[in-house]
Amino acid sequence: MTGTTDQTRKIAPRRRIAVPLWAVFFVAFYLYVALEIEPHLLYHGAGLIDSFPVFYWGWDFFAGFLSYPGGILEYASALLSQLFYYSWAGAAVITAQAWLICLCTDYAIGAVGLPRWRGLRFLGPLLLLALYSQYTFHLPVTMGVLAALVALCLYLKLAPKGPIGAGVWFLAFSVGLYALAGGPYLLFALLCGLVEILFRGRPRLGAIQLALGAAVPFVLGVIAFGRRTHDAYFQLLPLSWRISTLTSSELMREAVWVLILFLPVALLVLGIAQMLLRSVGSRRSRKKAKPSPAPDSIRRIAEKLLGDPACSRFGPNLQTATLIAATAAVLLLYRNPKVKTLFETDYFSYHGQWSKVIEIGRENPYHYLVCHAVNRALYHEGRLGDEMFAFPQRSEALLLTRQEALWQKSDTCVDMGLVNQAENALMICLETYGQRPLLLHRLARVNKIKGNIGTARVFLGALAKAPFWGRTARDELARLDADPKLSQDAAIQHWRSIMLRQDFVRDADALMLLLTENPANRMAYEYGMAGLLLSKRLDPFAQNVDTLRPVAAPKDPRHHVEAVLLNRTLKRQPIDVPGQTIPRETKIRLHEFFQALQQHGKDKAEATEALRGPFGDTYYYYYFLGG
């Protein structure tokens, strides 16, 4: 008997562990968001997101959100947004939101008798994935959608079966949800009305709920809270002027609307279809006709594609394949590495990770902001005069002459000594992006450089109330207490030594004025010479390259020598002069470049492509074929 039992144990197949499909999906979702999207880039902002909320600890800040409907949810969204400071924490916020939207959608569809369509629960998370893959920020709006879905599930779960009791519960939920979330309450009222009309056979109750949905914002928002009508109805919705006027909120707005409306549309379509099928079925039963196989076929197809959650397991099945295909399609359509490059470039520049900035420039085509960051990185690495033309260049990128680049321009201005210009740029950014910690910290630094210690303390005091910045602010305040003049701070003393004293100058005059006030300003010299090379002004370059050179500046960097040689060659001047002999290799390369250029005649496009490989990193190539 014992032997038989042992044989049975050996023959009996091992039970495989069935992993739920949703679990695998959300683990992969979290890892992708944390490791590929990297929410800390959204927190940093790079001057590309003006919709990221500000948050401070303290009652005064919180009290401001209590004065209008939706303020509580807006406060919670602002707090959760600060977790994007760390990618792992920001990814947890996004994944938790996606999972809750999935869970609520699943429960709602099941509660109205559509279990075969529960696969639609993944549509919300996929839309969130699309939004964040494009590096857009709509967290307050998507939190409003989640609040409406949670309220719907609570209504479906807790409301009594009788119409009067259900109506009372709906009214109670209406007051609470509207005070909490504001505009997204309209979504809750619409969903409840559709459920009652299409699935529970109570059209009168559903109509009352829809009417209350339209009336509650007016009664509570306009009359009770004193809000304007537009604000009372659309707070925390894309139609809100506070959202629609933000530049970054325009990105992916269609996807946000799909996230808001997909469940009402699904309930409307499926509810009407279900009613029509019942009507057709009842007529056929009265005629005793043979039932049509069409409804059963549709149901079987839906089950195969969307699946029954009770049976949805990760593995080689159609449900898994469908979800993988849908996810791959979203990533293929919405993944945006070009935009991520802009965020990474600014983030690495802020943290002084210059080698990473240079690597990004090497791997990507020209972009205004990337070009500026690469030049700044090359300067800090001591390689600007030797390697800048190994990267795509345009003169406008050197000092960021466009207005929209003020976020990046402030740091360059500080490094160069244009502290007043940096302060002006930061104050404009403060009006555009709000009192973001990154801006407060920079403004504190600018005022410390200028000796405005009292103003610096004000900015640091505000910074101390921002999550994750308290220690930094307190440490800097302590250093100000110990050394109010910051005489022991080497960085501050350096910036003070090169700071331009004039209040305002044009970009064209700034570098020369900086060198006039402080001839040792190496960055002003290198950027001044780079600007002359980029504008192809060889005569003033040749006149100033040696006379203005600070002692600390690199002597005879490659591009400077190339420009001097080219200028003398074009003017038919002696190549070698006393005190400056051009290296033989540089002469040979210019000769080879001219020979290769002549082979292509007047066809500049052909020459540009053909000479990019052997000569693309030279100033000769830029002078004749670039810029």
From TrEMBL:
Parts of the chain that traverse the membrane: 17-35, 55-76, 88-115, 135-156, 168-199, 205-225, 255-277
Record-linked Pfam families: DUF6057 (PF19529)
Record key words, sorted: Membrane, Transmembrane, Transmembrane helix
Organism whose genome encodes this protein: Anaerobaca lacustris
Protein's UniProt keywords contain Membrane: yes
InterPro entries named among the record's database cross-references: DUF6057
Identification of the protein by name: DUF6057 family protein
Keyword flag Membrane: yes
